[in-house]
Each structure stands twice: as structure tokens, then as C-alpha cells.
Amino acid sequence: MAFVILAAVATALFRLFSGALANASAADDYSRAVLIAESALAAAAATQPLKEATEAGTADDGRVEWTTRVTPYSPPDVSPELESTSDAMAIRLYRVTVDVTFPSPNRGKRTYALATTRIGLRDPK
Q1: Number of domains in the chain
Q2: If you average pLDDT over residues 24-30, what whole number do you get?
Q3: Which carries the bigger pLDDT value, residue 36 or residue 76?
Q4: Diameter of the chain measured on Cα atoms
Q5: What single DSSP character describes residue 57?
Q6: Which end of the chain, N or C, is less packed with Cβ atoms under 10 Å?
Q7: What's the mean pLDDT when you consider all of the chain?
Q8: Which CATH number characterizes residue 16's domain?
Q9: Handedness of CA 44, 48, 50, 56 (dihedral sign)
Q10: Are 111 and 38 in contact (CB under 8 A)?
Q11: pLDDT, tens digit, for every residue of 57-106?
């Protein structure tokens, strides 16, 4: 009887440790994705002159994929008069976003996204 109880307790402990290891691995993947996203966002936002562009790449031997986008940004609820006035200015707002895709513990994919707004010179057309 003592052996059966010991086996049941050991099984429960092994499951607990297995779950803890899986959670630690997922947290490590998430932390790595956050660092890659912050790095890619900082690099894209620091580019001078800031202009519309899309870049993509991989990290960690292809396990993590990232995409940065720089697009013109117009804040919501801007009046048409203000929008037309800002079109005549030499500077404009740009939205810089990064999406990082990395493996999920259940064999799927997770995506982490960051965004910022920067001011830059308007592209001559």
C-alpha cells in the first residue's frame, strides 16, 4: 500500500515539474521575442530619414521571424481642415510597427507586436 501511495505522489510531482519546465521554456521564448521586437523597433525608428518601408528577418536560427513597417500616420478624429494643413508641412508623423512571430508550446505560433510614432521629413513626391 505504501508503494502505491509513493508511486501516486511521484507521478504527481513529475507532472508538476514537467509543467513548470514547459512554462519556463515558454517564458524564455516570450522574453526572447520581446527583446527581438524592441531591437527591431528601435532600429527601424532610428533610421534617418524616416520613410515608408517594410523589412523582415529572422533570429534564433529561423525560429523567430520579425517584420517592421513604417507607414504615414494620421491620428484618429482629425478634422479635414487640419489634415489638409498638415499636408503642406515638410514634416509628418510616421507609425513604426514590428510583429514578431515565435513558436508556441502547443506547436503553434504566437505573435508579439510593438508600435511607436515618430516625426520625420515628408517624402518628396
Answers
A1: 1
A2: 82
A3: 36
A4: 85
A5: E
A6: C
A7: 86
A8: 3.30.1300.30
A9: negative
A10: no
A11: 998 888 899 999 999 888 888 888 887 777 778 888 899 999 999 988 77
Residue 86: give the domain boundaries.
2-121
Type of residue at 76: P
Of residues 113, 115, 111, 112, the one with CA closest to residue 97: 115
pLDDT score recorded for residue 105: 75
Confidence class for position 124, pLDDT limits 50, 70, 90: low
Q: In one letter, which amino acid is 116?
A: T
Reading the block at residue 79, the C-alpha cell is: 478634422
Residues in the chain: 125
CA–CA distance, 17 with 49 (Å, rounded to integer): 51
| C-alpha cell at position 104 | 508556441
Can you give 78-101 as a three-state secondary structure string? CCHHHHHHHHCCCEEEEEEEEEEE
Q: Are 47 and 121 in contact (CB under 8 A)?
A: no
Spatial separation of the C-alpha atoms in residues 45 and 117, rounded to whole Å: 8
Matching residue, cell 513597417: 69
